[in-house]
Amino acid sequence: MIEIRFHGRGGQGAVTAANILAAAAFKEGKYVQAFPFFGVERRGAPVTAFTRIDDKPIRIKTQIYEPDIVVVLDPSLLDTVDVTAGLKDGGIVIVNTEKSKEEVLEKLKKKPGKLALVDATGIALEILGLPITNTSILGAVAKATGLVKLDSVKEAIKETFSGALGEKNAKAAEEAFNKTVVYEL
Amino acid sequence: MPIRTVMKANEAAAWAAKLAKPKVIAAFPITPSTLVPEKISEFVADGELDAEFIKVESEHSAISACVGASAAGVRTFTATASQGLALMHEILFIAAGMRLPIVIAVGNRALSAPINIWNDWQDTISERDTGWLQFYAENNQEALDLILIAFKVAEDERVLLPAMVGFDAFILTHTVEPVEIPDQEVVDEFLGEYEPKHAYLDPARPITQGALGFPAHYMEARYTVWEANENAKKVIDEVFAEFEKKFGRKYQKVEEYRTEDAEVIFVTMGSLAGTVKEYVDHLREQGLKVGVAKLTVYRPFPTEEVRELAKKAKVLALLEKNVTFSVGGALFQDFSRALVNLDERPKIVDFILGLGGRDVTFKDLDEALAIAQRALNGEEFDEVNWIGLRKEIL
């Protein structure tokens, strides 16, 4: 079973990202589970969401304490939240940032096995005209983890957002997929 | 073909309602259940569900409107949680006493104070004496299925009681999981049209409903609710069997998992059963003889099945997200009563845990197991144990 934790801020769509990733993996025949940290969400406040993906039905209902993969939708969270808390040894960290590998690593309390960086905010602003990074970051997740195909992500995005909005968001995911830089550490 | 997709339990509940084709839905929003009426109102607005959606000013009015509509002779549905269900309290007795087969979906949530929107079972457990049938779902598929099953059982002429289906706040209501949406035609075959023979409005045949019951009749009216609860046991088995035949998913009042040769059997309800199944697998790998039993049906209380279960274990460890003050949890009371007159019975150890959304982890279950093992070894143990308490802030 693969466990993924998303860190974002209220309004950036971290919960939707977790749900879309689950939907994408489900399309590929996996069993999935996605849920928000059960808090009281407020715009701008740190938000956590989770996805589980497995080859067999997922029965466990606890929260996720030792993720295999951590996804950070907002670069400013690196300064305030310990995003690598509980990260498994050799785990993957995916960050939306304009900063360099060195600058990001300096802010992480635990060194991951793999680090993926993408300017998802830039891509979202360019394609959507809004700094909502949930769909772009999923392109980076597909690229860095190979857990799901980009096509499945795009399909799941288009099912979540209908019409032109879906097309644009799918394009943002593809753009991020192409621009994500992955570092093996 | 059934549609396989991913959705939250709240959406699954709304889909179940849509498939059951109620004529009246009356609801008032409350966390964590709001999405249920929200989604149903979409179905109604989009013309996908031919029903009257009544927006009301409180849960008391929501259930009152359901009582009125059900008494007028149509299938009715609502959804609520926590304080909302508590506000319905007096009308719940009326719905059962008037023998109205209303179904409520409840996103099981703690009761104030302190204010808490998260999961435990205090809301539905506190309504266990209203006469309503109670089902608890382990996952989103069960939430959908049990609502269909609840309608079928509730409307059976041998039962005619309202039913509530509980599914855990956030852990299920807001969690996305795979769900199979059954075919409308198969659901139509399973449920049929609701044809009331006892409660309806017909100017050609006027009847009085909800009338005064004098001392000469009140007790008999109450006894028929008792009898209907007893009848429901057999009807539930029949409906479960029919459901399995039509939809391929098996339900049991008490579902056992790896209880063969188990010395300690955990007993629980709702989504916690999923976590405990994983925990039991983990313990079995270490060679421990443990199993788990899940109560899918809590009212009527499955006394016979519990007595069978009791024969299999030396210790029953009850894991429950509710409190009956100075007693323990409600299950402790129910299990004690079910087993008290048996010559041979297992030890019962009660664990209160997961209140107000406190996550129940393997570490918590380890704590419970250690106490259950003391009981197993004939050592002293506390009958009622609060698990996962943060003693440092007490």
Write the layout of secondary structure elements.
The complex is a heterodimer of chains A (185) and B (394).
Chain A: E1 2-9, H1 14-27, E2 31-36, E3 46-54, E4 69-72, E5 92-96, H2 101-107, E6 114-118, H3 120-127, H4 134-145, H5 150-160, H6 163-179, E7 181-184
Parallel strand pairs in A: 1-4, 4-5, 5-6
Antiparallel strand pairs in A: 1-3, 2-3, 6-7
Chain B: E1 3-7, H1 9-20, E2 24-27, H2 35-45, E3 52-55, H3 59-71, E4 76-80, H4 82-87, H5 89-97, E5 103-108, H6 122-125, E6 133-136, H7 140-155, E7 163-168, E8 177-181, H8 184-191, H9 218-247, E9 254-257, E10 264-268, H10 272-285, E11 290-295, E12 297-299, H11 303-312, E13 315-320, H12 330-339, E14 347-352, H13 362-376, E15 384-386
Parallel strand pairs in B: 2-3, 2-4, 4-5, 5-7, 6-7, 10-11, 10-13, 13-14, 14-15
Antiparallel strand pairs in B: 1-8, 6-12, 9-11
Compact description:
The complex is a heterodimer of chains A (185) and B (394). Chain A is of the alpha/beta class and 185 residues long.
Main features:
heterodimer; A: 185 residues; alpha/beta; 7-stranded mixed beta sheet; 6 helices; 37% helix; globular; B: Rossmann fold; Rossmann fold
Can you describe what's shown?
The complex is a heterodimer of chains A (185) and B (394). Chain A is of the alpha/beta class. In chain A, 37% of the residues lie in helices and 22% in strands. In chain A, β5 (92-96), α2 (101-107) and β6 (114-118) form a beta-alpha-beta unit. Chain A is globular. Chain B is of the alpha/beta class. Chain B folds into 2 domains: 3-247, Thiamin diphosphate (ThDP)-binding fold, Pyr/PP domains (Rossmann fold, 3-Layer(aba) Sandwich); 254-393, Rossmann fold. Chain B has helices at 9-20, 35-45, 59-71, 82-87, 89-97, 122-125, 140-155, 184-191, 218-247, 272-285, 303-312, 330-339, 362-376, and strands spanning 3-7, 24-27, 52-55, 76-80, 103-108, 133-136, 163-168, 177-181, 254-257, 264-268, 290-295, 297-299, 315-320, 347-352, 384-386. In chain B, the strands form 3 sheets. A 7-stranded mixed beta sheet of chain B has the order 3-2-4-5-7-6-12, sandwiched between helices. Chain B has a 6-stranded mixed beta sheet with strand order 9-11-10-13-14-15, with helices on both faces. Chain B has a two-stranded antiparallel sheet with strand order 1-8. In chain B, α2 links the parallel β2 (24-27) and β3 (52-55). In chain B, α1 (9-20) packs across α2, α1 (9-20) runs parallel beside α7 and α3 (59-71) runs parallel beside α5 (89-97). The longest helix of chain B is centred in the middle third of the chain and has 30 residues, at 218-247. The model of chain B has no long low-confidence stretch (mean pLDDT 98). The A-B interface holds A 18-19, 22-23, 26, 31-36, 38, 40, 58-63, 65 and B 5-6, 117-119, 139, 168-172, 174-178, 271-272, 274-275, 277-278, 357, 359-362.
